[in-house]
Amino acid sequence: MTKIAVPRILAPLLAGATYARLLHLLVGWIFMGVILLIYPGTYGLTVPRIVAEAAATDCVLLVLVALIPAARRAEGVQARLLLVPDCEADIADDPSGSWADRWRTALWLVGRVALGSAVGMATVLGLANGADLLTGPQGPRYLLLLPVALLGYGWLVVGAGRLQLAMAVRLLGPSPAERLAEAELRAERLLERNRLARELHDSIGHALTVTVLQAGAAREVGDAAFVAKALEVIEETGRQAMEDLERTLVLLRESPEGAATEHPGVDQLPALFDTARAAGSPVEALVDLSEGKLPGVLSRESYRIVQEGVTNALKYAPGEPVSIRIAVRGGQLELRCANAMSAAGGVAARNPAAGARKGGKGLRGIRERATLLGGEATAGASQDGSGEWVLHVRLPLRLGS
To answer: Minimal CB count within 10 Å: which of 114, 148, 210, 298?
Structure first.
């Protein structure tokens, strides 16, 4: 037990953070000492009066300093360096942004100086009294108590340092409003990362699907004209995928160009349908947007949803006809993508464990897009016995701004 307990008692006394915190405490004590020497001084005054007047003067000066916005930033930087918090974000290093921040800074300064002065006075009195005892006639006897006194003083410093760190986290840490803003920023960044991941999945997944189908068809057919056409489609699809990848990388770098980069919208759907037709799947598309132009968000998300629907059709039912219907009805944008299921697709539809599409990341991404826009998405085998796989999405126009 002793071999385990002794290191636990001594470990905090040997840590560098303890002495960095002691330095931080003594800075506050030095401030009070300087003020005390200037006013009220120590000549001809009783100790209670000296302490009362010095404390009142310190409080007034510290409150005035706390009114300066930069004071909070200076204290935050100093506390981060000397108090050694477990997480630097627990102590803010921003200037005061409100009166609440200024008053919290004032409380911090007063508390810091008071605690530092207490530790400083304990240090001075301990050294003075210890020197008197050790040099007195009973010095050898008190020398035996020196290790206990040093251990006690060490733990006084450890406790005071930890208390001051707790004060700093409480009074110099982010305010509730700042914590809420930080949480909202993290949530926004997470949503943006998820959106970019979906963008890459939809774009690159579509390009790879088309490329694989074209290459396989060219190898099977062997016709020179068909091979040339297939290579042309592969080149165009690859170029488009590279542009989408570059656009996403620009957004990830958070450069100014990222904000100005346009995403594909419903006006680029004809090119998408042509690519699917070139891959060997007949596409019949009807786009009825007579009620007006779609808002930007709906236009972009609709393109990605249709792209994923076409990609799934090419992947799971290559060569089968694909029917696309896009229309605005009753304040909602309706998207319907249907394709005849191949033999493998029919098996998957009847037995989800055999590879049903509804477990794929693409369909999950479509449902996430629809949910974020306040809509809904369904996918599965048609219930009317037509043997089709149908993706049906409804998105409200009023949320697509």
So the answer is: 148
Q: At what angle do helices 99-135 and 16-38 cross, to 10 degrees?
A: 90
Structure tokens at 238: 């690859």
Tokens representing 199 are 């963008």
pLDDT, tens digit (0-9, with 9 covering 90-100), for 318-353: 888 999 999 888 888 999 999 987 654 443 333 333
**254 vs 244: CA distance, rounded Å:** 16
Does residue 378 register a pLDDT over 70?
A: yes
Q: What is the pLDDT of residues 106-152, one digit of tens each?
A: 999 999 999 998 998 888 888 888 888 888 787 787 788 888 888 89
pTM listed for this prediction? 0.50
